[in-house]
Amino acid sequence: MKRRGETGKNLGIGLSVILTLCWLFPYIYVICCAFKPGSEVIAVPPRFFPKVFSVENFSGLLERMDALGYLFNSLTAALISTLIALILGSLAAYAIQRSGAKLSVALVVLVLCLKMIPTSSIVVPIYELICNLGLYDTKIALIIVYGAINMPFVMWTMLSFYEGIPTTLDEAAFMDGASSLQTFRKVILPICKPGLATAFIFTLFLAWNDFLVALLLTSTNAKTFTVGLAGFLSAYNLDLGPMCAGAFLFSFPVMIISLLAQKYIVQGMTAGAVKG
């Protein structure tokens, strides 16, 4: 039985490694193409690794579009909107889950309905509102819209974490004289770090990868990298070298943030309760 268990474990590990390599293969190939000279990118037959490492594609990308400015716009809008959605969404979800009123069930259903609404169905009214407010082509407009669109996702994610926290912790804090906000900040938040990290990363992905909202709400000053790269491709007729360089620049910051926050995702709820 022990040998069978070890064999099954080894097979599971081997299958996981194979699936991981298959999943990473396209991205690794894009990175390799980003550091190839332009002639090697379109060479037939193609080579996986470059013969000579070159930054030609990056220099060509920077010459043809304001890549760094677009990246800054994307990062600013995604980070600030994610923080706003995380703060307001976690507070709202805590209030809904701890209220205990019959209305809370209706609010949970409303949050789920808001989460299910596709962005494409509400983007035209959003465009009209932003234009009427005089915020067209500003990062503030992107921050407000991303925060509002992604807040239901944060609320729905945090509701499941709050349900696993016993209300006795809130009652004990209340008996010690803590207010609701102090209880949330000093007792609940340390326990919910895995949930907050998960909501942060996925909400950041949603804002960072957005194309439709940024396409309609920006033109020049607040243009994001996704819109800029789309314009670059149409203007320069699918130049694969700079395209791979742009894909690498676009994905690298989010990967670094994900790696930094990964340790909080794997933490268990019970470990957080013991620390609190």
Report on the structure:
This protein is 79% helix and 0% strand. The protein contains 14 helices and no strands. The longest helix is centred in the N-terminal third of the chain and has 33 residues.
Structure at a glance:
With 276 residues, the chain is mostly helical. Helices cover 79% and strands 0% of the residues.
Secondary structure layout plus pairing:
Elements: H1 2-34, H2 38-41, H3 56-64, H4 67-99, H5 102-116, H6 123-132, H7 139-163, H8 167-175, H9 180-191, H10 193-208, H11 212-217, H12 225-236, H13 240-265, H14 269-275
Helix/sheet category:
mainly alpha
Strand content: under 5%
Query: From N to C, what is the helix and strand string?
Result: HHHHHHHHHHHHHH
Radius of gyration: 23 Å
Helix content: over 70%
**What is the count of β-strands?**
0
Distance between the termini: 41 Å
Report on the biggest sheet: none
**Low-pLDDT runs:** 268-276
Number of helices: 14
Mean pLDDT value: 82
Taken from the alpha-carbon principal axes, the silhouette is globular
Which keywords apply here?
disordered C terminus, globular, single chain, mainly alpha, 14 helices, 276 residues
